[in-house]
């Protein structure tokens, strides 16, 4: 059986809960698991936003669909290079406000899609 992407069970300002992973502020999730998303690892900032290195781990774990959150107030951008890297990898990408991103991610995961995502729970 293929690995299932973990369900996000709660999201509110500054706090998320993920089944099997516990709670945190920001998460990287993929089929079969995930972890806290530490922006300092790749130098991510609100602008230009999500870096190609941020999504690499999602691809390495088999994500064929990727959901990127923009934050609760849509302040988090996505670098053009990131979108191009996902396109080059033939990965379907969705960029949404965080609560909409969580709903979409959970629906795709429930449908058995090999979905990964980056989720930012504040601005």
TrEMBL record:
Transmembrane segments: none annotated. It comes from the Bacteria. InterPro entries: AAMDC (IPR034096), MTH938-like_sf (IPR036748), NDUFAF3/AAMDC (IPR007523). SUPFAM superfamilies: MTH938-like. Pfam families: DUF498. Signal peptide: none annotated. CDD domains: Mth938. PANTHER family: MTH938 DOMAIN-CONTAINING PROTEIN. This is Mth938-like domain-containing protein. It comes from Actinomadura adrarensis.
């Amino acid at each position: 059986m293929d690995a299932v992407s973990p369900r996000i069970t709660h999201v509110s300002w500054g706090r998320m809960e993920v089944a099997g992973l516990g709670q945190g502020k920001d998460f990287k999730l993929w089929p079969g698991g995930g972890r806290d998303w530490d922006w300092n690892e790749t130098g991510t900032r609100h602008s230009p936003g999500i870096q190609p290195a941020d999504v690499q781990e999602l691809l390495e774990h088999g994500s064929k669909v990727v959901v990127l959150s923009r934050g609760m107030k849509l302040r988090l951008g996505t670098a053009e290079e990131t979108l191009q890297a996902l396109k080059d990898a033939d990965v379907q990408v969705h960029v949404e406000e965080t609560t909409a991103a969580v709903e979409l991610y959970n629906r795709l995961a429930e449908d058995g899609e090999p979905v990964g995502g980056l989720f930012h729970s504040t601005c």
